[in-house]
Design a protein that fits this description.
Shape: elongated
Number of domains: 3
Number of strands: 29
Largest sheet: 8 strands, mixed
Radius of gyration: 37 Å
Order of helices and strands: HEEEEEEEEEEEEEEEEEEEEEEEEEEEEE
Number of helices: 1
Distance between the termini: 123 Å
CATH architecture of the largest domain: Sandwich
Helix content: under 10%
Strand order of the largest sheet: 22-24-27-26-25-28-29-23
CATH topology of the largest domain: Immunoglobulin-like
CATH superfamily of the largest domain: Immunoglobulins
């Protein structure tokens, strides 16, 4: 009886041992661990919308993409950023997709494991303080002038290229209060040809300003720019024009056949007939005078005038004295 009991115990022990060995062997060969990332992070967010602009690196703070815009370039309406993500993560909208450049725009990052994280764009505009060494002794009523970068005696720097946020004006020395606005003809980084060769702010002096002394100023964004030398303040002299002249700033004016365009200058009321031609010796095509003041003339291109790029404006006085301006007037069909 005892012998049978020992035999049964032995067989039970061997069964358990063999079962454990089989289990251990199969566990070693059938299971492998694979890591799936749950990281859904934006590592970097870079903006460079202009070739001559230093790349702007956003600060990633928790779930906010903070961009500090301090470029002298006007802020673009849209951006196409360069974005670096966590390994194997995806983003929507994609980095190559153009998005509105404004606070509140959303990005969603999805990890390899399927977890998501949403980021919000925050745009902080910080205008650099403009620097200037501008000084001009004066000009004539309705005349033209300019603040040009890198020109000795009239240089400016760090102006924000935003026409809507820029104003050129005169403040009367008589009461230190009355202001007169100038008309801006061109404001930008230069066209590479005259009259807007260089980066600058080109403008017409007011036509409603009395003769006298003034302070010449630029309002650019949140800053007011004036001469760096206090002795020059309220020492800008406005005088009456003494010559008949067509402004160089009409360059690039465009009109359709049968349509109108405008020219500026001084003592234009002394001019009777106006023509355009290609070159000073080219065929002259007469223009119709629609309206005229001392400083501005609206002209109509008559039907029958050939389309083309006209390089001269010629005007005649009552005594047939000629006044001309080399320029570019584009006439389209």
């Amino acid at each position: 009886m005892k012998q049978n009991q020992y035999k049964n115990n032995f067989f039970s022990f061997m069964t358990v041992a063999i079962t454990a060995l089989v289990c251990m062997t199969s566990c070693d060969t059938e299971y492998n661990t694979t890591y799936v990332s749950g990281d859904a992070d934006i590592k970097s967010f870079t903006v460079q919308e202009f070739e001559d602009q230093q790349p702007i690196q956003a600060a990633i703070v928790n779930d906010t993409i903070k961009i500090l815009w301090v470029s002298y370039h006007d802020m673009p309406e849209t951006i196409t950023p360069t974005i670096v993500l966590s390994d194997k993560a995806a983003i929507s909208p994609k980095a190559a997709v153009e998005i509105p450049f404004k606070t509140g725009e959303k990005y969603t990052v999805t990890s390899e494991a399927g977890t998501t994280k949403q980021y919000t764009l925050e745009v902080d505009f910080r205008q650099p303080q403009p620097k200037t060494a501008i000084f001009s002794t004066g000009g004539t009523i309705g005349g033209s002038s300019a603040f040009v970068y890198s020109i000795a005696g009239s240089s400016i720097d760090n102006l924000w290229f935003n026409l809507e946020q820029t104003r050129v004006y005169l403040v009367s020395a008589a009461d230190k209060t009355t202001e007169y606005d100038c008309d801006i003809a061109y404001f930008g980084d230069g066209k590479g040809s005259n009259p807007f060769m260089n980066t600058g702010l080109y403008y017409y002096l007011p036509t409603n300003v009395p003769v006298g002394k003034y302070d010449l100023r630029i309002k650019n964004g949140e800053y007011i720019v004036r001469s760096a030398t206090e002795a020059n303040w309220f020492n800008f002299t406005i005088t009456e024009p003494t010559t008949t002249a067509i402004s160089t700033y009409i360059y690039g004016s465009t009109a359709t056949i049968g349509g109108n365009f405008n020219i500026r200058g001084t003592k234009l009321d002394t001019l009777k007939d106006f023509f355009i031609s290609i070159g000073s010796a080219g065929t002259r095509y007469q223009l119709e005078v629609v309206s005229r003041t001392d400083y501005s003339v609206t002209l109509k291109v008559p039907v029958g005038t050939p389309a083309g790029n006209y390089t001269s404006v010629i005007a005649l006085k009552e005594d047939a004295t000629q006044v001309s301006r080399s320029t570019l007037i584009i006439v389209k069909e």
